[in-house]
Amino acid sequence: MKKILIAGTSSGAGKTTISTAIMGALEGVSPFKAGPDYIDPKFHEFITKNPSNNLDLFIMGEESVKYIFSKNTKNISIVEGVMGLYDGLSHELDNYSSAHLSRVLDLPVILVVNGKGASTSIAATVLGFKNLDPRVKIKGIILNNVGSERLYNLLKEGVERYTKIPCVGYFPRDERVSIDERHLGLQQASEIENLSEKIEILKDMAKKYLDLDKILEIAEDGNDYKEIKNPTEYLKDRFKGKRVGIAKDKAFSFYYSENLKLMRYTGMDLIEFSPINDSHLPDNLDYIYLGGGYPEIFAKRLYENKSMIEEIKNASKKIPIYAECGGFMYLSKGIKQLNDEFDPMCGLLDIKVEMRPRLNISRFGYVDYESEDGVKGRCHEFHYSDIYDVNEKDLYFELKKKNGKKWSCGYKKDKIIAGYPHIHFYGNLEIFVKLFDR
Questions:
Q1: What is the pLDDT of residues 336-373, one digit of tens each?
Q2: Using CA atoms, how far apart are residues 52 and 419, in angstroms rounded to an integer?
Q3: Is the predicted pLDDT of residue 194 greater than 80, yes or no?
Q4: pLDDT of residue 183
Q5: For residue 407, with 0-12 CB atoms within 10 Å meaning exposed, 13-18 middle and 19 or more buried, which class applies?
Q6: What's the chain look like in SS3?
Q7: Does the pTM of the predicted model rise above 0.90?
Q8: Among all residues, which ones are annotated catalytic?
């Protein structure tokens, strides 16, 4: 099995740019993303034309991560890391970081290092990453933001002399491939008009500046492991024949691909609809699933679609609705934007949402939960908004962070369960059954 993890020394080191370039330059790539991110996998899918799957040790657990990885491999599996190589939930080495994931899946690592303004000290940086945990197999270095081949060769000499790790190429800075960011990260792949052009530039850069043969050689360093048993086998056809409406458009696009595959595996018929563009819900639904996304950006278009809002209101009295983060915001009374303008939403929950200029750090990241009926699991929160003027009392989740901070979330009303937490079903099979058994 050819497999490799592309990691960075920190967020912003360039691992996303270089990961996507390598994915585009090689054939038969199975893309993966470490951690809970929704946006990077969409770029992977655009480039490789293959589904990209998240590998999150905290939320999913080791066995589910191994199973999803083993069943989705093609010619070469490329995993894009998250944050810096060793950055995770704590300063322990078993902290759900990219390095931790590389050890669980026996992945050789190519480390992306920012070469701007560096000289011999760059070798000390690489040596520190090598020595912090010798179990992590750092097998290659890519230097990013390097101005010329001459400078790359100088930096390469220092890195290889003191670390004995080969450099496998470099990337110069190129504004043609930059992608604008917004508060949840990069813009979505579907929003970038000239993305195909950027991808072609990245492919050419990978072929020109990287030693792709050496990267493939490194990728063969990982050992195979035996096939992992499907942890969801007992759920085969559990919900056979149930029709589930999935909100899918520019406002609602944050779904884990394995969540949707699992829903189909259990027999559900998934019917996509657009709360922005469609006038009506699909016919004869048994359930509605509203995922995360950017309802605040498309708020006016969502509210102007009065017929869709009316149909969702009527449906909420008859069939279960589950809404995560952006879907939760859509069901609220409305969203107060950063300019203080208030955009009404569905009004099914007597709650208002206020956008903030910064990440809600107190409720950011990995969280343990317990549902009102005693189901325990793990999820994550990531939002630049908060709720106010809350007049709902019936809560579904109790949440707790590793630092001891606790709060309640996940509001219940009629047949609705909605809140900020994002749940990957593979690590939370019991709550998956509870939610869809309603």
A1: 999 999 999 999 999 999 999 888 777 888 999 999 98
A2: 25
A3: no
A4: 47
A5: middle
A6: CEEEEEEECCCCCCHHHHHHHHHHHCCCEEEEEECCCCHHHHHHHHHHCCCCEEECHHHHCHHHHHHHHHHCCCCEEEEEEEEECCCCCCCCCCCCCHHHHHHHCCCCEEEEEECCCCCCHHHHHHHHHHHHCCCCCEEEEEEECCCCHHHHHHHHHHHHHHHCCCEEEEECCCHHHCCCEECCEECCHHHCCCHHHHHHHHHHHHHHHECHHHHHHHHCCCCCCCCCCCCCHHHCCCCCCCEEEEECCCCEEECCHHHHHHHHHCCCEEEEECCCCCCCCCCCCCEEEECEECCCCCHHHHHHCHHHHHHHHHHCCCCCEEEECHHHHHHCCEEECCCCCEEECCCCCCCEEEECCCCCHHHCEEEEEEECCCCEEEEEECCCEEEECCCCCCEEEEEECCCCCEEEEEEEECCEEEECCECCHHHCHHHHHHHHCC
A7: yes
A8: 325
Tokens of 429: 């099979």
Cα–Cα distance for residue pair 108/105, rounded to 1 Å: 9
- Both tokens of residue 166? 């080969």
Residue at token pair 């991110």 = 37
407 token code pair: 């709060």
Tell me the C-alpha to C-alpha distance, in Å, between residue 207 and each of 22, 115, 246.
9, 19, 39
Residue ranges of domains in the chain, CATH in brackets: 2-219 (3.40.50.300), 233-436 (3.40.50.880)
Structure token pair of residue 278: 């469609």
